[in-house]
C-alpha cells in the first residue's frame, strides 16, 4: 500500500523494500492537487504548464522492479520542493520575512521557493502573500516531502552501504522567456545533471547517458541544467550517496498545449522501465 501524506506526497514502496536495489526515485514537480488557499490569478490551463505532467507515471514501473518512488502531491507553482527553504522572493511578500533569505538566480527569475510568474512571464498572483501563507506551505508541503525522501534514502543506504537517487523532471521542448537564463533554447531529449560531478560519482550519469544514447536519444550532461536543490542536498558521493537529476523533453511523450499523452508515450515509458531495470542491476553490482 502507498504511504500518503494528503498535502505533501505519495510514496510507493515495493514489497521487498529496501532489499531489492540501492535505487530511489523522486518526482517533486508532478503534483496536481491544487490547495484551496492557493488563489492564483491565472486560469487553470496556464497554471498546469508549470507541472511536470505525467512524470510520476512515466517512471511508475519502478515499483514493480523493486524501486521506491516518492512523488509530490502539491503543484510546483504552489511551492517548489526543488528549492531551498530560504529562496523566498521578497517581491511576493506583503511584509517582512523573519527567516533567512537567499538572492539566488532562481529567485531573480521569479522561480524561487514560491513562484512569482510562469515561464512566459505571466504573474501568478494579483496580490501579495503573507508570511504566514508562506510558512504554512513550507510546513505542510515542503518539509514533509524533504523529510520523507531523506528517510527513504537513509533506509536504503543503511541496508546497502550506498544509495543512488534519481530526481525526475520534465522540460519544455523550448525554454520559456522567463524559465531559465537561456530563453528560447531548443532542448535535447534528455539532460542529466549532477552539478558538475559534485552530487554523484560521474559513472552514474555516464551509465545513464550511454544507455539512452544507445536507444537513439539525444543526451546532454550538465547543460543547460546541472541539478538544483534536491540533488544538492542529498548527493554526497564521498558518503556513498549519489544523486542525479534527469530532465525529459516533453515533446517525447505529450502535446505541450493540451498536456495529453502523444504517440511516443508508450515507447518512452517502456524505455524508462528498461533503464530502471538496467540501473537495478548496475547499482547492485556496485555494492557486491
From TrEMBL:
This is N-formylglutamate amidohydrolase. It comes from Bordetella pseudohinzii. One of its GO terms (molecular function) is hydrolase activity. Keywords: Hydrolase.
